[in-house]
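[Solved] Which block belongs to which protein?

Original post:
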Amino acid sequence: MRLNRIWLFTLAVFFAFGVFINTPAIAANKEKQQTKSTAKINSKTTSKTAKKSKTVRVTVIRSAQPVVPARPSLATALGLRGQHDHLNLKSSVAMVVNQDTKEVYFEKNPSVSLPIASITKLMTAMVVLDGEQPLDETLVIDSEDVQSDRSSRLAGGTVLTREEALLLALMSSENRAAYTLGRNFPGGVPSFVAAMNRKARELGMDHSHFADPTGLMSENVATAEDLTRMLGAAYQYKMIREFSTWPALTMVIAKRPQKFLNTNHLVRSGDMNIGLQKTGFINAAGKCLVMQARVNNTPLLLVFLDAVGTQSRFADAVRVRDWYERMPPGAQSIRRLM
């Protein structure tokens, strides 16, 4: 009996000792299982998160600010755009005048004073040439000239002669070139603008006003009738004729690098017998064109203001040419300019 008790006690001690030894192993095993379980859960969570991240949509928030359209031209605001005429012209204002006899063959809203944009440069050129300053005098594009037009191709510091500036102002419609011509006039730009308005009065342009040499300001205004007077006067200057028509291109390239020139706006002499032309555009003026051309051996002064598109003003000139060519000899004019 005693022996049995000793054996049971020994067995109990041995069992307890075994449990004590195996407890860390059991705990470690449990910890491993918990780690694996946690890893599986994390793996599933990560996988789900990854899958979810693929389906997440990125919302692009567009600007709530509306696109501001360009302001309509003054002619459009006055209700002149789209008015019908028997030549089906796309210009709001138009006029056709015999240069020699001053007879008016066609007119459309001829008495409305409207912005004329770079057509202004014809007056700028006349005032420069009337001033008789040396054409070979060197001019430099300075900071004031740069301020006149931020988009010009003439960089500050560019050196050119007065003649080259005049050429670029007429043929390439370079605003900085036109402005520097005014700035280098005796008395500067204010004196130059005053001379422009005096010249306009001398020509009988009673419904016109000039505010700067470039035409960028919408305060440069004239009627179609006044523009025929200015166009006829500008035609009397040989240099203006040469610098504003296609045959001058060879001479232009020789004088100035092609990068400064923009001749896309010119109607080639092969298309029409043109003696002088000038285009213009600012938002307030729309697309404009004035032209001296010979049709049926008759010198005509053509004015087109606020055309619908860039090419429409040239198409209008062609429409007028075709119409005039079909006119019977001795056709009656509408009236004669005084």
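(Second protein starts here: sequence line, then its structure tokens.)
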Amino acid sequence: MTPERLGLLWGVTVFAGASARLLAAVSSLPGVVLLLLSGLLIGRSGLGLVEPLDLGSGLGTVVGLLVSLVLFDGGLNLRLPGDTIKTTVQRIAILRLLLSLGAGLLAAHWLAGLNWSVAAVYSAIVLATGPTVVTPLVRQIRLAPPLGDVLEAEGLVLEPVGAVLALLLLELVLGDLHGWRELAFGLLSRLGGGTLIGASVGWLLSELLRRLESDQAASGLPLQLSLGMLFLMYGISEWLLPESALPASVAAGLVVGRRRNQHTADLDGLIQELAQLAITMLFPLLAADVSWAELSPLGWGGISCVLALMLLVRPIAVGLATTGLPLDLRQRVFMGWLAPRGIVTASVASLFSIRLEQAGILGAGRLQGLVFLTILMTVGLQGLTAQPLAKALGLIESPEEPGPSSDEAAAQPGQVLPDPSQ
């Protein structure tokens, strides 16, 4: 690709994303839905101005670095006050892991027609809700806390698990792994190793930030230092343990967020702005890779597969996970509905499809098509209906009477999920 063509690709992508953000601001439509539509417009399914595969092997690196920034921001701002919220997130994550994997496998094979091995990879790819989608929706809706914290935490916990598990299943399909014992060991080593690397980097970064003088902080050094260490951590993690950079990014953000100092508040805002920019770039870029030729052969079988995950699997998993917890019916209904898939799902599908095609595995194109159909349907349907549903259920935070802060909620662990009717 020529430098001119490369510059045009990024220029069109960022402009399309920024235009979608502007339209969302003036129309109150969900920004993530408009970002997705902007990518379809400029990509293969529309004007053909952007072809992500022109980036070659650099596509995975660019996407990985930007996704690590988004996950670091999520970990940095994640708040889980009270034991009830932590228990809710843990139970949802475990039950989603067990139920969604099995249900996704069966639905992809029986309804969408994927062979068993490719269907297993699909079920792992779409396992997690996307924090890159959930977080903007929660903030735009002004969802009353701490329900938004639960939804964001669910994505941050399951996103790395799903990505790592999908990679290992792919390696099992390609013959690079031999047996389920190697798969289990690979999953634990990547998740554990990534978490350990991320926690170590987060602790070192927080110590360095603590020692900065005020004039050094004013010069932007905390942000530069954070980005430098984050991207270096990404490179080292991927070199040592592929896909371990995702749990490492979340762990690093969690540690820095917990060890707050006088510079962390300013850093939070700057990292959040950069994370929003990363989402603005990534969504149109990856949506541009969607081809109607990959979606159309799926037909009603593909649509039925996605609807089964949305309307059956998700509500059942949330219903079982929240049984016995102090959640009212309205909160459980909303949690059972909102489960959009995001950027990590799209990026993993694109890269894995290429590897399957190179290996001559049948169904690679259908895998990518079904994953993007899942993203289109979940982001489109749930993104457009999330705010009206939250309003109808009385779950939107009143601007006149803001909900309790994280510290206040933490001080009242028995009431961390208040009844919105009160």
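Accepted answer:
You had them paired correctly. Confirming on the second one: The longest helix spans residues 180-210.
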